[in-house]
């Protein structure tokens, strides 16, 4: 499995699958090097996208891995890869979130993330905010 920064050639792959970001922002995220593509033998198998909470805390927005590749430790590898890059850039804290009805919260806790609060929007399940000291 390889982890690469997304490039313009990955644009179509991302916009066809990532329905949680307006298409107009995908090119900006690619340009800012805020999307990683996961590959297996040159085939795209997933992606990870991040940004910054309060413009100064790295915030992992989305990880998606194709169904047949799940359960193989790929999610953990991309998160640890991202954390190391953030550490090298001098960040001491990273964040992410997941809905309270999703299994991802357990994954994040297993790799060292701690509950830091929550957000309740009127039309969605409770969003659990998680942080990790690097």
TrEMBL record:
UniProt keywords (A-Z) are:
Transferase
Q: Which residues form the N-acetyltransferase domain?
A: 1-134
Q: Which GO terms describe its molecular function?
A: acyltransferase activity, transferring groups other than amino-acyl groups
Q: Does the keyword Cell membrane apply?
A: no
Spell out the InterPro entries in the cross-references: Acyl_CoA_acyltransferase, GNAT_dom, N-acetyltransferase_domain
Q: Which PANTHER family match?
A: N-ACETYLTRANSFERASE DOMAIN-CONTAINING PROTEIN, SPT10P
Q: What is this protein called?
A: GNAT family acetyltransferase
């Amino acid at each position: 499995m390889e982890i690469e920064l997304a490039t313009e050639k990955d644009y179509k792959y991302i916009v066809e699958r990532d329905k949680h970001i307006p298409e107009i922002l995908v090119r900006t995220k690619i340009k800012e090097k805020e999307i990683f593509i996961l590959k297996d033998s040159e085939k795209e198998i997933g992606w990870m996208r991040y940004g910054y909470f309060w413009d100064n805390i790295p915030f992992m927005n989305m990880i998606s891995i194709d169904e047949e590749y799940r359960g193989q430790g790929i999610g953990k590898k991309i998160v640890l890869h991202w954390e190391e890059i953030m550490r090298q850039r001098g960040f001491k804290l990273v964040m992410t979130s997941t809905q309270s009805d999703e299994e991802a919260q357990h994954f994040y806790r297993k790799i060292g993330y701690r509950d830091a609060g929550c957000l309740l929007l009127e039309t969605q399940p409770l969003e659990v905010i998680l942080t990790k000291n690097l």
